[in-house]
Structures are given as C-alpha cells and as structure tokens.
Amino acid sequence: MSSEKELKIDKIKSGTVIDHLPAGSGPTVLRILGIDSKWGTSVSVAMNVSSKSGKKDIVKVEDRILQKEETDKLGLIANNATINIVENYNVKEKHHVSPSEEMIGVLECKNPKCVTNQGEPVVTNFKVESANPLTLRCKYCERIMEKELLEEQL
Ligand code: CTP
Ligand code: ZN
To answer: pLDDT, tens digit, for every residue of 28-67?
Structure first.
C-alpha cells in the first residue's frame, strides 16, 4: 500500500533501528547515543508519526550497535521501544527495551558527600522508584536525582 501521502523513511543496510519510541523522545535518544553535528554515518529521525497505537518516534542509525549503557538509559525513557539490529537489509535481532529497575555504574550522584564521590572504588547505584515522573534514588545516600541533573547525564 503506497500513496503519495505516506511518510517514507529509507530502510537501512546495516545498523540499528530504534522503533516504537515515545512521541517526542527522538532528540533525547540522539543525545543518549552521542549523535551530534560531528556524527559521520547516516541517521534518520522520525517524530510524531502515526502507528497502530498512537504517535511514535523512530531513530535509525547506519553502522552502529548500541552499548549496554545506552540500552540502560533507553530503559529510563523508552519503555517498550524495540531495538532492531539490521544486517544486509534484514532484521537479524529484535530486542524489547524493558523498564530499568536500577542503574548501576551509569549515572553520577550529585551529592558531594555521597560515598560514591569520595574517590573510593564504589560503583554508583540508583533505584528507579517511579517511571513517570522519572524518579531515581541513590542507594548509598538516598538522595533523589533531580530531573535536570538526570537529563544532563543522558
Ligand atoms: N527497518 C529498516 N531497515 C531495514 C529493515 C527494517 O529501517 N533494512 C525498520 C522498519 O522500517 C521498522 C523496524 O526496522 O521500523 C523493524 O522492522 P520489522 O521488524 O521488519 O518491522 P515490524 O514487523 O513492523 O516491527 P515491529 O513488529 O517491531 O513493529
Ligand atoms: Zn549518592
């Protein structure tokens, strides 16, 4: 079914398609992936496109596989998105992003007195207390991560 009104986003040859993202989350996803003006391979972002279950965003990145830290961060903002690994135009693997329950070694605690900021070999650990609004609490000092401080670390 093809019509002139249909939105076309090219298929990719190899790389990663992150699909079923919450509408409007595309720019945050680019930030999580470290994609900025100096990025080299082709990237497509579709925002607010219609899907079976309302509006969604899609991010397609050629020649790029996600790191664990990146999928962990996606779990904070994009529950139920799918990560499709494409090889030679075929979807070779499909993973569902699951909501993060805790974030280990990914985010910094901004409490200067926290044990994770004393130069000791202690890995940061945040419990996700709520997904909406996104609320994370440091397991060591119990400080809640402020929304702005969280966003700047994504
Ligand atoms: N895709 C792509 N390039 C390819 C293959 C797939 O950009 N070479 C994209 C598709 O456009 C789609 C996503 O990757 O957005 C997943 O592809 P596929 O599994 O074939 O689609 P669906 O079955 O519709 O996926 P789902 O069931 O996860 O919605
Ligand atoms: Zn702390």
So the answer is: 999 999 999 999 999 999 999 999 989 999 999 999 999 9
- Rounded Cα distance between 28 and 93, Å, is 23
What is the model's pTM? 0.91
Q: Which residues line ligand 1 (CB under 6 A)?
A: 11-12, 17, 19, 58, 60, 82, 84, 86, 89, 91, 94
How many whole angstroms from 122 Cα to the centroid of ligand 2?
Answer: 11
**DSSP string spanning 108-125?**
----TTSGGGTTSS---E
DSSP alpha helix (H) spans, the chain:
26-32, 68-77, 147-151
